[in-house]
Amino acid sequence: MHRLFIPGPPLVSFVQCFWYWEGAPQPHARERLMPNGEAAIVFNLRDEPVRLYDADDFNRYDCCGLVALTGARTSCFAIDTASEDRVVGIEFRAGGTFPFFPMPASELANRGFDLECLWRTAAGTIREQLLAAPSVDAMFALLERSLFAQLARPLKLHPAVEYA
Asked: 3-state class of 34 per DSSP?
């Protein structure tokens, strides 16, 4: 099962989509993902940490806990398909993380983080609420509310970005 949800204004200016994936284990252990220039948050709904592997050396990876923030990528990376067979996430637009995190996007680029390091207990609380949600639509509504609760800055683009 794969579902996408496009949030309404004002989040749509910062968030490309919310997504949900649940599926059978894949025949391959790792899956390479192409860079798209966008950061993402991944909530693993299985009790396995999210691992973001170097696409050229699977012995090198970032272990990001049960909730990962991955910065925008300039090269491909790989994920562990067996441990991520039920996940929900937030895909930000290019540059869309700034209202939700205090640091510049350049500090997130090409790296993975345990979201609890940035959002403290909120990351784990949101994950627990996602696990208890009765439907995928309820998960998407929870993600919308959670982003508003985590605002570090106003939801307003810089005038130069709006003009561009």
From this structure: coil
- 46: helix, strand or coil: coil
> For residue 74, how many C-alpha atoms fall within 13 Å in the half-sphere facing its CB?
5
Question: What digits encode the pLDDT tens for the residues 77-126?
Answer: 888 877 778 999 999 998 899 899 988 888 999 899 999 999 999 999 99
- Stretch (H or E) spanning 62: strand 57-63
CA–CA separation, 122 and 142 (whole Å): 12
Q: Are 152 and 100 in contact (CB under 8 A)?
A: yes
Residue 98 makes CB contacts below 8 A (sequence gap 6+) with 14, 104, 105, 153
Question: Cα separation of 94 and 105, whole Å?
Answer: 9
Task: Check: CB of residue 103 under 8 Å from CB of residue 153.
Answer: no
Q: What Cα–Cα distance (Å) separates residue 63 from each residue in 41, 115, 116? A: 14, 11, 13
* Nearest residue to 37 (alpha-carbon basis) of 109, 100, 98, 99: 109
Question: What is the enclosing helix (H) or strand (E) of 31?
Answer: strand 30-33
